[in-house]
Amino acid sequence: MEDLAKLPELEPSDALRRRTLARSRHRLEASLALAHRPVRRFLVDLVTPALVLGGAASYLVWAVQCCNHG
Amino acid sequence: MQFDAIYTTYEKRIYGFLVRLSGRRDVADDLFQETWLRLARHAPTLSEDTDIAAWLFTVARNLYRSHVRWSIADRLRRRDVVEAVTSTTPEIDHAWRERWQKLETALGELPVAHREILLLVGVEAMEPQLAAQVLGISAAAARQRLSRARAALAYALGEEGTPWKI
């Protein structure tokens, strides 16, 4: 493994580094805020998927009805 | 801030891993950014004893796997890692540059399964057991894969039968 270990380090461009850090810090703040709001977290974790599934089910019912009518 | 300390520690390692895994700077740039966004999103739920290195490499590797699954065009495009690397480091000596280019090219031509374990164990000096965790396979399977990957790399370098130095 000697030669593989000697391969040079690669680093992101300054622009990529700045962009990544800025977006990550913003996301981290949002995640921390969410983690400290249990009710809101409950809503996001459980209710949102339920709404999505409910929406999908309604769409399926509508599609089946459309097929039946012609 | 702890996040910044983790970023500083692993920035180059994760970026190098992604560039060499994908062979493409543009792809690596996107996946690199997404890896850190994932850490930011999951940071509040990570426990104190989480192995951050293993976590980050697992996310980076899974993002690449997912990218490959959805992007057929990328698989057909030329790898640009060797050119990108060598053009940014003019000060190295000629012999090593040649060896290094050969190594990068050979690495890039290996199947992804071989390339990723060589990058983790060979380049990142990760213990095979930890690499197994990143790859989601057993330690025994990782050792076997590593052995095959080493043989494949030696073959690609035309060094089959020579003492292992890779």
Descriptive account of the structure:
The complex is a heterodimer of chains A (70) and B (166). Chain A is mainly α. Chain A is built from three helices and no strands. The longest helix of chain A is centred in the last third of the chain and has 31 residues, at 38-68. Chain A is elongated, with a radius of gyration of 24 Å. The termini of chain A are far apart. Helix content of chain B is 75%, strand content 0%. Chain B is built from nine helices and no strands. In chain B, helix 1 runs antiparallel to helix 2 (25-42) and helix 7 (112-123) packs across helix 9 (139-156). Chain B starts with a helix and ends in a 10-residue tail after the last helix. The model of chain B has no long low-confidence stretch (mean pLDDT 86). Chain A binds chain B through residues 1-13, 16-17, 19-21, 23-28, 31-32, 34-35, and chain B through 1, 3-4, 7, 11-13, 15-16, 19-20, 29, 32-33, 36-37, 39-45, 85, 89, 92, 96, 99-100, 103-104, 118, 121-123, 125, 165-166.
What descriptors fit this protein?
heterodimer; A: 3 helices; B: 166 residues; 75% helix
In terms of DSSP E residues, the strand content of chain B is under 5%
Could you tell me which chain pair has the largest interface and how many residues each side has? Answer: A-B, 28 and 38 residues
- Kindly provide the radius of gyration of chain B, computed on alpha-carbon positions and rounded to a whole number of angstroms: 16 Å
Distance between the termini of chain A: 67 Å
What general outline of chain B do the C-alpha atoms trace? globular
Q: Whole-number average pLDDT of chain A?
A: 86
Q: Give the DSSP E fraction of chain A (strand runs of 2 or more residues).
A: under 5%
